[in-house]
Structure formats: C-alpha cells, structure tokens
Give the backbone structure.
Amino acid sequence: MYSSPIPSSKSKRGDESLIIDIENYRYELDISHRRNNWLTQLNIPLVANRSGELDGLIEDWHDFFGFPQGKRDEFPADKINVQYTRDGVVAYSQTAPSSGVGDIAVSVGYQDAGGTAYFAGIELPTGSATEFTGNEAVDLAFWITRDIRINAKVNAFGMLGISFPGDDGNLEGLIVDQVWVAQLGLDYRFYDDFIATAQLDMHSETIEDSKLRAFRESYQIQLGLGFLKLFENHRLDLFFSEDILVRSAPGITFGLRLAREF
C-alpha cells in the first residue's frame, strides 16, 4: 500500500500552468514466481484519488525538518484540485474523488551467475482515463538490477531502466516517447531480523517540452525499515520517501509492504 499526498502547489511558466492538490492511494497485489534463474511477476493495482486528511500533518512535517512548503500552506486543506493548462487548453482536470483498478503489469526477468538481473515488462490498459486510474494505453519497460554484498551487514543495490509510455489518455500527445529511471541504495542489517534501507530514486522528464518543475527530471530519497521475520514466512517493510527537488514529485509518500513466501 502506498499513500502519496501530492504537494499543494501552483506553477506557471510561459504558456503552461499547473495546480496540484490531491492525495493518491495505491494498493497493490504482487505475485512472483521464481524457477531457477527466471522470475515472473504480476502486479494488480487499485488506485484511489482523494481529497485526503494529511495536509496539516505534511505542513507540520516540513516545518519540523525545515523543508520548504512549496506554497502548500496557501491552499484550502483537504480538497482535490488538479489542473494542467497548456497553450490555453485544459489538458488535465480533476476536482472529484475517483477510484478503480489501475494498469495491470506483467514482467519477466533472468538473473545471471554474477547477480545481475535483466527484466522486460508490459503494462496493460486496464485502468480508466475518466476515473484517473490509468492512461488506457500499452506501456513497455526494460531494466537491469544488480546487488553487491559489501560485508555481512551491508548490501548495495542499483537499477537502471527505460520505459516507453503509450501516448493515450488524458495527456495524449504530450507524453514523452521514453522515460529513463535509476535507483541507488544501501541495506544495513543491524539485527538478524531487521534491515534499514536508504535509497535514491530518479527519473527523466515525462511531458514533452515542458518548463514546469513537476514534469521534468525528479530526485527522491526513500528511507525504510524491514522486519524480515514478522512471523513465520512473512516480511513487513515500512518506508517513506521525500522529494529532493521540490515540486518534482509527491511531497511525501508513505508505504507499507507485506510479503509471504509459499
């Protein structure tokens, strides 16, 4: 489960303007199957866009740590208002809650003897553009992951990938042909059953020729705590992420992941 309170903000550059004030919730069912060096994954998401109840908490969080508010404190609390205007045309607008099944994704990967894994994935158009849960297009992605064991307690990991989003849905004609993504992180195992994680996530621009910060490259930091043996055959991960470049990503994202081995 992920909860992403998008930062309340208003931006304007030339012929573009953007207002973002929403909370997004994403519940995912992941099913993975490994056979020898091959891994198959299925992801089924449920997306909910809500006015939310966390505006006050997020403002207090940024004040406590000295993070900039990004003008979020100038907006009415707990309201939905998302609007993107370009060349005098409203390209995207949402003012009411919505929810539904998102875009289902399937991926296949192969791990070589050195620990590098190669993946290919496809995202199906099962979401709805009218309910703001998908772009009603087929998206393709390819990525490489690598883990490096530094010592008995520390593990480094990374990912580099490229996605090819389908040009359809509410932003048809504006989405870039390809998006690069990268990830770098460290796991520290401070007890037999507990792991702390620090991770940096990055991606390239998502809207063609946009001058707005929200659609250009993004950098986020993620911190997490993993309970490897919450109870038999189960693992629990708790984490949150914060945007390093203000307005380039959700102001803060909270996450919870529960996994079970069969």
Remarks:
- The first helix runs from residue 55 to 65.
